[in-house]
Design goal:
The chain is mostly helical. It has 1 helix and no strands. The radius of gyration is 35 Å and the shape is rod-shaped. The termini are far apart.
């Protein structure tokens, strides 16, 4: 069983240090490229979606039978306003 001296450890670390630093760099660049691609894909999908309907284009609920269509209207209550 041999024990490394401090000089041997430094030499061993220096020889393999350059190669071990490239792996995380390549992985980081791959993650950045993946994120950029996902953002571009999301922007493209959002642009191709139809726009949301305007308020006047919103679907309306049908009037239930037997109610006679009463209730609130778009012009407010009949009689010109609130009772004071």
């Amino acid at each position: 069983m041999s024990a490394f001296t401090s000089t041997e450890l430094i030499t061993t670390a220096a020889e393999g240090g350059g190669v071990s630093g490239i792996g995380p760099l390549v992985a980081g660049l791959a993650v950045v490229a993946l994120l950029i691609g996902m953002v571009r894909l999301g922007i493209h999908k959002r642009r191709t979606k139809p726009r949301p309907p305007r308020p006047e284009e919103q679907p309306r609920r049908p009037t239930p039978p037997g109610t006679g269509g009463g209730g609130r209207t778009e012009h407010g209550p009949e009689g010109g306003g609130r009772d004071v």
